[in-house]
Design a protein that fits this description.
The complex is a heterodimer of chains A (about 350) and B (about 90). Chain A has one domain (about 10-275, about 310-350). Chain A contains 13 helices and 13 strands. Chain A has helices spanning about 15-25, 40-45, 70-80, 85-95, 100-105, 120-125, 140-155, 190-195, 225-235, 250-260, 265-275, 280-285, 290-295; strands spanning about 10, 55-60, 65, 115-120, 180, 205-210, 215, 245-250, 275-280, 310, 320-325, 330-335, 345-350. Chain B has a 3-stranded parallel β-sheet with strand order 3-2-4, with helices on both faces. Chain B has a domain at about 30-90. Classes of the chains: A alpha+beta (about 350), B alpha/beta (about 90). Chains A and B meet through strand 1, helix 1, helix 3 and helix 5 of A and strand 1 of B.
Chain lengths: ~350, ~90
């Protein structure tokens, strides 16, 4: 909206009272927010070249719209610095793609949270963490960009728990779920390079993450052993679906895999081949459906699909793999996509630049 | 201190309820099946109750390709042209 028509709340010049006022309005995620004072919002807007009324994302079911201005207000509340703002804008432009299924992934009982993975130089430029305690607290950029995502979902798109957000249990990532891809020591091309953006561009990938599985393996010393334990996590009966996957390999595990000469593609194919369950096993837990088997084993089935099995995903490219975390520890992780089917597909956008725009 | 409002800044939405039908007797029902595991069985049973109690006609199911996405506009437009009322539900 134009700044001269933006809604303003006049509150006393008392910071603590303003924080309480934000609580009273129902604007928070349960934690205190930075009161969105005009000056801070305008500083945030200075990092976006388009007018503040520009719409960057629309909720397909309710038609509620996210303007650049509303995004900036919520970014201030989350505690973002202005230089973080282009990541938030790009993330919602990615989530606005129909394939992300913005409505379903934010409303569903499945309780997913948008996982943001920032790839490229911009992550370093704004001081993001790609290293030790990757998914944990302590880094302002990671924490507040993820938090701004949640506040926008709550305040702009009105995804209110119990009303429009029907998550049965939710997940801790619904407070904040944002990481940087680790470039330092990464033997594989960065995600942004695989996404074919021009050199110097950074990207954010958005994925409707349904949870977090730690994959511990300190004994494995070959790619097959390490990835075998990852594949087992991906195929557990509690979460195997036809959906996509994110795998963040620890540097130790990556050293074993890439050190043996394996490429990202090799790892994707290994995981796709092994993250599977037999039809009889799926039936034993009541999760087998003829229609899903038919989708996976139809005329366009991937050559690695094996008869008599349900694999996780439809093809190796459904598995995003990269590196993150601290140097020490045999701890990687697997994050399943939301939905039993393929109702949300990961999307990515460049940060702070417009490529092939009208 | 001046605070910007962080809630939706979109235009006012036009949300109207459809007018209530004066009677259900003999009306034509559409069934919008969302693809969930038990949706077809549940919705068919509900439609059968309308047929039994009110003599309604049941049209073939309109299927959504994606249970959690809004129904395509053309599906709803076709249903609106074909039926007097539509029933739907999750059937999870």
């Amino acid at each position: 909206m134009p700044l001269d028509t933006a809604r303003i709340h006049e509150v006393p010049d008392d910071l603590l009272a303003a924080i309480d006022y934000c609580y009273e309005q129902g604007w928070t995620d349960g934690l205190p927010v930075v009161p969105p004072v005009v000056a801070r919002v305008e500083a945030m807007l200075a990092y976006e070249g388009r007018p503040p009324e520009t719409i960057i994302c629309t909720h397909p079911a309710t038609t509620l719209e996210l303007s650049v201005h509303a995004a900036a207000v919520n970014a201030v509340m989350a505690g973002c610095l202005p230089e973080y703002f282009p990541v938030i804008v790009a993330a919602f432009e990615a989530m606005n793609e129909p394939g992300f299924n913005f409505h379903g992934s934010t409303a569903s009982t499945g309780g997913s949270a948008p996982l943001l993975i920032v790839s490229g130089q911009y992550a370093d430029d704004i001081g993001m963490n790609a290293d030790v305690n990757l998914f944990g607290p302590g880094n302002r950029a990671n924490a507040t960009i993820g938090r701004a995502t949640r506040l926008i979902l709550r305040n702009v798109f009105q995804m209110i728990p119990g009303i429009s957000d029907k998550s049965t249990q939710g997940n801790p990532g619904k407070y904040s779920f944002c990481i940087a891809e680790r470039a330092r020591g990464n033997p594989w091309p960065l995600l942004v390079q695989e996404q074919d953006y021009p050199e110097g561009v950074s990207s954010v990938t958005c994925f409707a993450g349904g949870g977090f599985f730690n994959v511990e393996n300190h004994g494995g010393s070959t790619p097959e052993q390490v990835l075998g334990s990852v594949a087992d996590a991906m195929a557990n009966y509690g979460c195997i679906t036809l959906g996509q996957s994110v795998v963040i390999l620890s540097p130790e595990h990556m050293g074993i895999i890439a050190g043996a000469g394996w490429s990202r593609r090799d790892a994707q194919e290994f995981l796709f081949r092994h993250a599977r369950r037999p039809v009889e096993g799926m039936k034993s837990v009541g999760k087998y459906r003829d229609s899903e088997y038919a989708k996976q084993h139809g005329p366009e089935a991937h050559t690695l699909i094996e008869a008599g099995y349900i694999h996780r995903g439809h093809r190796p490219e459904d598995i995003l793999i990269t590196m993150g975390g601290g140097d020490a520890g045999g701890h990687s992780c697997f994050i399943p996509s939301w939905s039993r089917a393929r109702s949300s597909l990961m999307q990515h956008k460049p940060i702070g630049v417009c490529i092939d725009c009208d | 201190m001046q605070l910007y409002d962080p809630t939706s800044s979109g235009p006012e939405r036009l949300l109207n309820r459809a007018p209530v039908l004066p009677s259900l007797d003999g009306k034509t029902i559409g069934v919008l099946h969302n693809g969930k595991l038990n949706a077809e069985a549940m919705l068919s049973e509900i439609a059968a109750l309308f047929a039994e109690r009110h003599g309604c006609n049941i049209l073939p199911v309109y299927a959504k390709a994606n249970a959690s996405a809004p129904a395509p506009a053309e599906t709803l437009a076709q249903a609106a042209a074909d039926v007097d009322f539509l029933i739907t539900g999750l059937g999870d």
